[in-house]
Amino acid sequence: MLQIFFSTADIKWLILSLSICCISVVGLLDDIFGDNKSKGFKGHITRFLKNGEFSTGLLKMVSMPVVIFVSSVILQKKVVESVFYAIFGSLCVNLFNLFDLRPGRCIKVLWISVAVLSFFVHIDRVAVGLLTLTIPFFIGDLREFYMLGDAGSNVIGYLFFLILTNSYSASYNLFLIWAVFIVVFVLNVLSERLSFSKVIERNKFLNFIDMLGRKN
């Protein structure tokens, strides 16, 4: 898919394409078979320890790091760095999944986040290409023709991770990666105690951005 789009014969695009598909499929399983009996990291772990129930949420918690770790090891050839990427990438996926509660919000967060990052790093043509691919999905989600669901929002979070870490290239900004990691980690922790939707709705500016283009 990406190999054809960017006209490159490098195997890295095959690896990234497969990892994107795996991450989306895991999200799709959660969309189809998931329930509301448990939420958040703590909820899924507690449910497993107390009731022995392996929820689709816990499946995501286990499988996401594995997929990202394997793809990172193949691409980067560095085990320690790949462990960090597995944790970071999984947190990005989970964070963007949390934003997928209103039409268009998830992809808006992606675009705004990358726009902010562009002040600190060069957004190359590959990143622009990846962002361009999200436009048709954004339009359909915003106009409520369909929902991204976990299958879609997982991929959006993973794209953010790929663009930030430049996983498809040999270059990256280590300081920026650590800075964003801290922000993403903190937001994931906060999500266990507060609702991002309520925070957005209470802030006039954030609510204005959130409502742009929506039917209601």
Can you offer a commentary on this structure?
With 216 residues, this protein is mainly α. The protein has twelve helices and no strands. The protein is globular and about 45 Å long.
| Helical proportion, percent range | over 70%
Structural class by secondary-structure content: mainly alpha
Q: Helix and strand succession?
A: HHHHHHHHHHHH
Q: State the separation between the terminal residues, measured CA to CA.
A: 35 Å
- Which ranges are low-confidence, i.e. pLDDT below 50, for 5 or more consecutive residues? 1-9
State mean pLDDT (0 to 100 scale). 83
How large is the count of helical segments?
A: 12
Count of distinct strands: 0
Strand percent estimate: under 5%
Most strands sheet: none
The shape is globular
Radius of gyration from the CA trace? 17 Å
